[in-house]
Amino acid sequence: MMRLPLFEFRAPRTLEEAARILDGQGPGTMPLAGGTDLLPNMKRRQQVPKTLMSLRHIEGLTQVQLSSSGSRLGACLTLADIAEDPRFRNGMTALAQAAALVATPHIRNMATLGGNLCLDTRCNYYDQNYEWRRAINFCLKKDGTTCWVAPGSAKCVAVSSTDTAPALIALGARVRLVSRSAEREVALSDLYNNDGINYSKRRPDEILAEVLLDSLHGWRSTYWKLRRRGSFDFPVLSVAAAARLSNQGVVEDARIVIGAASSRPLLAIDAARSLLGRSLNPETIAEAAILAARIAKPLDNTDFDMTWRKRVTAEFVTYALRELRGDDVRAERESVTRHPFV
Q1: DSSP code of 182?
Q2: Are 273 and 290 a contacting pair, CB within 8 Å?
Q3: Concatenated DSSP letters of 217-230
Q4: Architecture in CATH for domain 8-58
């Protein structure tokens, strides 16, 4: 049985108090929301904070403000809250789909939006118990000096496995980061580094408090996820797509994001740009799918063959754009994502 290491526990009641705790106690203190990623990591001794600081009792972090001018989503909203709320549809359908495809109902009832955005990167050589990792002399990401996926690499290539980040990046989201000294807004697409160890630009003294969205009037969005099993598994490839269409079906703006193919979600800028001013016909979709697949360069650090995962990228982009066009893709979705949510 894997047991948690000893730690102190703090439960602030306000965001200001939480920021003071992080500022005063330093990087040995970590925020705790649902704990569905952090606590297993602690059992495997991948992360060993001296203090856990619960965010559960902070008023405002579970609030939802949806309006025609924009939306504010508290970081402690559970994924179940988002998946089951009918307000997260139309423009924000991608977010609802991403939340619904995370793990199991039990985990979605605990896991939070902010926690999923801050999810630790994953790798077959890293996500093992302490004794297994010690047997291979650990790895570059934790306690070792060698990246066993790419032994010649000076950089860790552990993969980003968050479901909600690609969806929210496709929706143009920003996040509000709060510390004792200041607060700042950062485009979610700029929050991540392409580095398996230093994968986030959130500082240790900052709390991810809110997700901010501009008006999504006229936008459609969708999220597709590849995994081996129909529940529980992390993505080994994901595609989020969002587009604003004119009344004539012409693409006025678009974003396509590839997840779980790198240490950060990847914006397929050229693919999205190729859609502008055009309708989503088969030729347009095929061109965008090819362009999007070019940036996906998965490595052998998760499930399935990496070359096959790259080929599947174009197919998933095709499914996503067909769905934005209005095609009935329920059969394809249930077949490849193992989930009926449309």
Answers
A1: -
A2: no
A3: TTEEEEEEEE-SSS
A4: 2-Layer Sandwich (3.30)
Q: Please report the pLDDT score of residue 68 as a whole number.
A: 86
Tokens of 217: 């009037």
Evaluate whether 8-58 and 64-118+159-336 have a shared fold.
no
Instruction: For residues 171 and 96, give the distance between their C-alpha atoms in angstroms, rounded to a whole number.
Output: 12
Contact 242, 249 (CB under 8 A): no
Q: What gap in Å lies between CA 133 and CA 137, rounded to an integer?
A: 6
Please tell me the distance from the alpha carbon of residue 168 to that of residue 174, in angstroms, as a whole number.
Answer: 8
Q: In Å, what is the CA distance from 309 to each residue of 35, 91, 312?
A: 29, 28, 5
What's the confidence (pLDDT) of residue 232?
Answer: 80
Strand ranges of the sheet holding 51-54, from the earlier edge strand across to the other edge = 8-10, 51-54, 29-32
267-302 pLDDT per residue, tens: 999 999 999 999 999 999 999 999 999 999 999 999
* Element of type H or E holding 8: strand 8-10
pLDDT digits (tens, 9 = 90+) for 128-175: 999 999 999 999 999 999 999 999 999 999 999 999 999 999 999 999
Quickly name the fold that domain 64-118+159-336 has: Enolase-like; domain 1 (3.30.390)
Query: What does residue 235 show for φ and ψ, rounded to 5 degrees?
Result: -70, 145
Domain ranges in the chain are 8-58, 64-118+159-336
CA-wise closest residue to 209 among 73, 316, 38: 73
Reported pTM: 0.97
Task: Please tell me the chain's helix, strand, coil percentages from 3-state DSSP, rounded to the nearest 5.
Answer: 30, 25, 45
Q: Rounded to 5 degrees, what angle do the CA atoms 195, 197, 203 make?
A: 95
Residues facing 185 on adjacent strands:
176
Q: What is the pLDDT of residues 58-73, one digit of tens each?
A: 989 999 999 889 999 9
